[in-house]
Amino acid sequence: MKYKAIIGLEVHVELKTNSKMFCSCSADYFGQEPNTHTCPVCLGLPGALPVPNKKAIEWCVKIGMALNCDTPLFSKFDRKNYFYPDLAKGYQISQYDKPFCINGHMTLSNGKKIGIRRVHMEEDTGKLIHETVDGIKVTLIDFNRSGVPLVEIVTEPDFETAEEVKEYLQKLQQIVRYLGVSNADMEKGNMRLEPNISLRKEGQDGLPNYKVEVKNINSFSFVGKAIDYEIKRHEEILESGKTPTQETRGFVEKNSSTVSQRIKEEASDYRYFPEPDIPPIRWADREISKLKSQIPELPDEKLKRFIKDYAVTEYDASILTKAIEMADYFEEAVKIGKSNNLNAKQIANFIINRKQDINNILPAKLIENILEATKTEKVSETELEKIANEVLSKNPQAILDYKNGKENAIMFLIGQVMRQIGKKIDAEQIKAVLTAKLK
Ligand code: ZN
Ligand code: MN
Fold first, then answer.
1. pLDDT at residue number 420
2. Residues 20 and 106 both lie in one domain
3. How many of the other CB atoms lie within 10 Å of CB of 58?
4. Which listed ligand is nearest to 43 at the C-alpha?
5. Position with higher pLDDT, 327 vs 382
6. What is the 3-state secondary structure (H, E, C) of the chain?
7. Same domain for 225 and 123
8. Is the terminal CB of the chain with fewer CB neighbours within 10 Å at N or C?
9. Shortest-distance ligand to the CA of residue 95
10. What is the tens place of the pLDDT at every residue in 63-111?
């Protein structure tokens, strides 16, 4: 390819705190009657004062820590001014030059490090609903979402393909779920994605002189489609000797394309200034260490440990560690299995191959089920000898095959013995008897 894509990503993650970011309204707004989770603060009424949600701030810092960020001891909130009907105050309380977390990274499976520029705290906006009421097209506003804690995670422009972006997103979703700070449910809009894309000529240094951002995408696959569409579009424009316009575009689901929405704002358009109603935040070292100590074992480490400790394949380990609930369940089952002479690999196989519903089967019950499924019945030596002789006399061809080195001939003979016995007995026991006779 003549061009190389340069892709960065902004992700907004809604936290699942009980209350909103700057007021005591419930943040659990999904599916609720419109405008029932509101108060003067999140409606932006004059004179109402914001009080920051401590838990939300701590969770924001934890996300940053899990993404290997530095956490400066000084931080503050700023006002980001813009006019849009879903923004009650006319500004969003966000963070400008002193975010909670900076300079992190995430390592992809190909070993590539994606830089995390910043992780900051802000508030969500209300929701606009376009409807027809009494035959008139109107826009309704639901402020239940207004002020819900939102963490914004901004990467460096380190991605080159849609595949890298999708892997990053899956890992990010996994991490925030491990931390227990967000459901990261795409369908409910808990995670919203904004890739920015530009192309540069192969061999050329530095960043291109333009950048196109695609706004508010709510599925990993749509992000991939939007990126691929943009790469192709930019290629065509560059090939014709022009430069793509720096702008914000929207993704159109029905034909996987994008359309221009507005010419991209500069930071100066937002007239950022420090939020006068919230004092700056100064962390003590011990507070930061305390938060760090609360970070659980994260997916990458867990995956490595599972492969090492439980001798499972990387593929199996990735299934077992995808969700922390599954990982915990598996480890609990391993503990119980140990006293029943079941090893971790047997348990892993059973969970994965038989698609066990871990929400409805307790680990102890799972172990019982495995024991039941693998239970073998006893058969007397003499009976086994007798049947083995019968089978051998009826299958001279299989004996010949075996003696000519066809290893699987013995499997056939074992099967015949089992069928004749009509019980589920240990295949190894039958094999031992047969091979002894075939010597
Ligand atoms: Zn409120
Ligand atoms: Mn934002």
1. 86
2. yes
3. 16
4. 1
5. 327
6. CCEEEEEEEEEEEECCCCECCCCCCECCCCCCCCCCCCCCCCCCCCCCCCCCCHHHHHHHHHHHHHCCCECCCEECCEEEECCCCCCCCCEEEECCCCCCEEEEEEECCCCCEEEEEEEEEEECCCEEEEEEECCEEEEEEEHHHCCCEEEEEEECCCECCHHHHHHHHHHHHHHHHHHCCCCCCCCCCCEEEEEEEEEEECCCCCCCCCCEEEECECCHHHHHHHHHHHHHHHHHHHHCCCCCCCEEEEEEHHHCEEEEEEECCCHHHHCCEECCCCCCEECCHHHHHHHHHCCCCCHHHHHHHHHHHHCCCHHHHHHHCCCHHHHHHHHHHHHHHHCCCCCHHHHHHHHHHCCCCCCCCCHHHHHHHHHHHHCCCCCCHHHHHHHHHHHHHHCHHHHHHHHCCCCHHHHHHHHHHHHHHCCCCCHHHHHHHHHHHHC
7. yes
8. C
9. 2
10. 999 999 999 999 999 999 998 899 999 999 999 999 999 999 999 999 9
Residues 363 and 216 in one domain: no
Q: What digits encode the pLDDT tens for the residues 206-231?
A: 888 899 999 989 999 999 999 999 99
Domain of 327?
A: 297-373
pTM of the model: 0.85
Q: How many angstroms does the Cα of residue 82 sit away from the middle of ligand 1?
A: 20
Ligand 1 centroid to residue 370 C-alpha, Å: 51
**Separation of CA 276 and ligand 1 centre (Å):** 19
Last residue of a domain, one of 264, 290, 316: 290
CA of 51, nearest ligand number: 1
Structure tokens at 177: 């779920």
Residue 411 CA to its chain's centroid (Å): 43
The token pair at 304 is: 């490595």
Angstrom CA distances, 229 to 188, 314, 415, stand at 25, 33, 56
Cα(41) to ligand 1 centroid in Å equals 5
Q: In whole angstroms, what is the distance from residue 316 CA to residue 348 CA?
A: 7
Do 172 and 270 lie in one domain? The reply is yes
Question: How many angstroms does the Cα of residue 12 sit away from the middle of ligand 2?
Answer: 7
